[in-house]
């Protein structure tokens, strides 16, 4: 029997009551929106734990050795077909309880199966984290505290900051994570409105830049932006990662710009299912 009561299923599917009854009985797979996923499929994926993780290596630019891994969520159907994680999370964001449950179970899996090398960077968005509470009783913090002094070292990569309200919540999230002994990374610093704040920049252990977004600027602007951010990070002891490195040319650019670490399709990854 599924763990969600009638009202929650109705909220997830955004259907009329009759359609919810049909959905609960498995008589229909009504789409959430024209480009979305059927509600029944989403519930099946979550309740049957049809998810896994890709471990993407983070490579030291100077030594060219693996420093650690970043865990990325992966979802699949009963037949094994991969489903877009972006689409899946877009649906899950419509039901905070289901999002929270999925993210917490995913983090447990990602920690349990992780390669025992250097860092383990886990993506966690603010909505998922805050659903667990704004204090030290938050189950995410309890999970991270269990592994705070173990190998691999946990680093939480805060993602999905799109506005000033999220920037304020991100700062609160950083404080809670640091109080629990967990390091913090910030995604795409300086490239989204509301993402960058001086306090978050200073408090982070790692900051990440996206190569595609940077090189979407004109070449002089891209190099000037990255040079400024890398120089500032180095002066305050924050390490830098350039994501999206897919060729030797991209790697050479990162090396020339003084970035500490890189990741992307140029490097092999590991996939593990629940």
Automatic annotation (TrEMBL):
Listed SUPFAM superfamilies: EAL domain-like (SSF141868)
InterPro entries linked to this entry: Cyclic-di-GMP_PDE-like, EAL_dom, EAL_sf
GO molecular function annotation: cyclic-guanylate-specific phosphodiesterase activity
Source species, domain of life: Bacteria
SMART domains, per the entry: EAL (SM00052)
Pfam families: EAL
Domain EAL, chain residue ranges per copy: 35-274
UniProt xrefs under Gene3D superfamilies: EAL domain (3.20.20.450)
Name the UniProt record assigns to this protein: EAL domain-containing protein
